[in-house]
Design goal:
Helices cover 30% and strands 0% of the residues. The two termini are 17 Å apart. The radius of gyration is 12 Å and the shape is globular. It is mainly α. This is Transposase. It comes from Lutibacter oricola.
Amino acid sequence: QAVYIYNNLRTHFSLDLRKPAEVHLNPTIKYKSYRKNKVNLPELMI
């Protein structure tokens, strides 16, 4: 339940007050990345 709230209900400042699920479904939305190295990581499929 906490993960659902975090990804679908809670807005995030680094995503310009969007929800992670919303940004994940729309790849054209730009967001801030705090990652220092630009390593391509494979997507996690559950």
